[in-house]
Design brief:
heterodimer, A: about 300 residues, mainly alpha, MetI-like fold, 11 helices, about 75% helix, flat, B: about 300 residues, 12 helices, about 0% strand
Chain lengths: ~300, ~300
């Protein structure tokens, strides 16, 4: 029995209505999610605004909320990031290069690949426990900048590896074949062709990894970092020979997220203002790094036309 | 081009051999770097098992799994993981009950309904949000969301599992939306074209063609989201209270596994004490829990991936 024209019209109208309804629902959900987040960040900025001045960046933490600043925290964060980048970037990029350019199709490559995937899903606090047991006590590195940097480096290693692999995979096979055809060795192909072409992608991954590391709190708390640090680690560069000084690696430290956590957990509401201000700085730092990464990727995709 | 001079074969060979050995050295260095991933996994398992084995020498495994109290730092310590597990599962459940519907709707919308310009604008924003430090979300949970909820639910304590659960949900919405959208984008266009040609509407095509075709990727994104919610630390440590409490009522305060580890690590526990070992036992439980979900997600994605 064929449907009457009128019935078909009704059916079409009903389905079109459903389309419109879902379109609106989708827009509504996205708007709600984005607006809630925007509202939270605006509120954070309003709460923290009164404390965001020069003194906040140049003061040490204090028992008096109005005087408390984040000097030791941001210096600590930068030093820890330095260690993290030094450790995670070479190892991560090298591992990515091996997996994409060198790995034979055998069980070893598969085991490594599964491990990388798995490590990416391990909760960050587990890295803290690893560092507490292995670095702090077994290796005796103590609760130092070095320990924290290495902990975060282990944590972001999968991020760097995955980003490197993706960037390398985007390099067309013809470029490799051309280089091999001219007699280049595998390392020459990798170093002179694959790596330069994928550099933007690698850099994107590194920045995203570092921005994750700079905001990470749990593993650093777990290794037992102190929260009240009213001094700076020794300067890495000295006026006298040999001009570099590695004592800062073994110095106690605090970082931005720990400082914020410490202030949030205090019952005194005056410290919540400091926490909000620290939150604004932290969010600004990670958003800047992430935007830079996204922009770099966008530019790399646009500019390179194979 | 001139033919290769036959007068200098030995020198050429020597150069080649030298090049080969440097190639081998570089290749082994790169392999070593790749093996570091295996080494880290091994170290995690090693340390967790090593420190926990000292803990389980004191506490029988059966007690650990069945006791209903978790008070390792008290005079009369009790070591039952159940209260911490209950806290972890409750906050994760609240988070997922919020994030899975929201994330899925957002993903379907972005993939099938939104204009390309909207999608191109929203995707980077989702990425930016997932980069915000969790400690900031903890601040939101304690000082914005909980006070707001207290207006709706009178008598809600300042520390509760509902607020942090919701905030973790907000945190993982972009994660689910982004991963599910990738899965739906991977469904080839001719599936949709065939469906449209049969007279199906956009909504019908999305629900009966695209979502089923991308189901493995969507389910995998849920499972990875579970694993993230379970392992989330700072939000619950700040806003859920730190008292172990065997309850599944989200309006009560309770500690999760992660919050307990943070609480102990903030204090000054001597190395080698049973309290120190207890955080490794809790960590091992957490690691196994997330490992199960991660492996499940991996298997689902690998095995049920539709090849087009």
């Amino acid at each position: 029995m064929a449907l009457q024209t009128e019935q078909i019209r009704v059916l079409i109208a009903r389905h079109k209505l459903r389309d419109v309804c879902f379109d609106l629902l989708g827009m509504f959900v996205l708007m709600i999610a984005l607006l809630v987040l925007a509202a939270l960040f605006v509120q954070l900025a309003i709460d923290g605004f009164e404390r965001l001045n020069y003194d906040f960046f140049s003061n040490f933490p204090s028992r008096r909320a109005a005087r408390a600043g984040i000097l030791s925290a941001w210096v600590g964060s930068i030093l820890v990031m330095l260690v993290t980048a030094m450790a995670a970037v070479p190892v991560g990029v090298a591992a990515g290069l091996w997996l994409e350019e060198y790995a034979p199709r055998n069980w070893l490559a598969e085991v490594i690949e599964i491990n990388v995937t798995n490590l990416a899903g391990v909760p960050s606090i587990i890295y803290g426990l690893l560092a507490l047991g292995l670095l702090v006590y077994q290796m005796g590195l103590g609760q130092s900048v070095l320990t924290a940097g290495l902990t975060l480096a282990m944590m972001i290693l999968p991020v760097v590896i995955v980003a490197t692999r993706e960037a390398i995979r985007a390099v067309p096979q013809t470029i490799r074949e051309a280089a091999y055809g001219l007699g280049a060795t595998r390392w020459q192909v990798t170093r002179d062709h694959v790596l330069p072409y994928s550099l933007a992608g690698v850099l994107t991954g590194v920045i995203i990894g570092l921005s994750r590391a700079i905001g990470e709190t749990a593993p650093i708390i777990t290794i037992g970092a102190l929260t009240f640090i009213a001094f700076l680690p020794p300067a890495p560069i000295t006026a006298t020979a040999p001009f570099v000084n590695f004592d800062w690696l073994f110095s106690p430290f605090t970082v931005m997220p720990i400082q914020m956590f410490n202030w949030v957990s205090r019952p005194d509401a005056a410290f919540h203002v400091s926490a909000a201000a620290a939150g604004v700085v932290l969010v600004a730092m990670t958003l800047t790094m992430n935007s830079l990464a996204i922009w770099l990727r966008f530019r790399a995709r646009k500019r390179i036309k194979w | 081009m001139a033919p290769v001079q036959s007068a200098r074969p030995r020198r050429d060979l020597r150069v080649r051999r030298f090049k080969r050995s440097s190639e081998t050295i570089i290749e082994s260095l790169l392999l070593l770097a790749a093996l570091s991933a295996v080494a880290i996994t091994a170290a995690i398992v090693g340390i967790l098992v090593y420190e926990s084995s000292a803990f389980f020498a004191h506490v029988p495994l059966w007690t650990f799994l069945t006791d209903t109290q978790w008070t390792p730092l008290f005079e009369n310590p009790r070591y039952g993981i159940m209260p911490l597990l209950a806290g972890t599962l409750t906050t994760s459940f609240v988070a997922l009950a919020f994030a899975i519907p929201m994330g899925t709707i957002a993903a379907v919308y972005l993939s099938e309904f939104a204009k390309p310009a909207v999608r191109e604008a929203v995707k980077p924003v989702l990425e930016l949000i997932s980069g915000v430090p969790t400690v900031v979300f903890g601040y939101f949970a304690l000082l914005f969301v909980t006070p707001m909820l207290q207006k709706i639910i009178p008598g809600l304590p300042g520390f509760n599992m509902l607020g942090p659960g919701l905030v973790i949900g907000i945190m993982i919405v972009p994660y689910i939306a982004s991963l599910s959208e990738d899965a739906m984008r991977a469904v080839p266009m001719h599936f949709r074209e065939a469906s449209f040609a049969m007279g199906a509407s956009r909504f019908q095509t999305a629900m009966r063609v695209v979502v089923p075709a991308a189901l493995s990727g969507i389910v995998a994104s849920y499972i990875l989201a579970v694993s993230r919610a379970v392992g989330e630390t700072m939000v619950v440590a700040i806003a859920a209270g730190q008292q172990p409490n065997l309850t599944f009522d989200p309006t009560e305060a309770a500690a999760t596994i992660t919050a307990f580890i943070v609480q102990v690590a903030m204090g000054d526990l001597p190395h080698g004490s049973i309290g120190y070992q207890s955080i490794f036992a809790a960590g091992l439980t957490l690691f196994l829990l997330t490992l199960i979900f991660n492996v499940l997600g991996y298997v689902i994605r690998k095995r049920y991936r539709e090849a087009y």
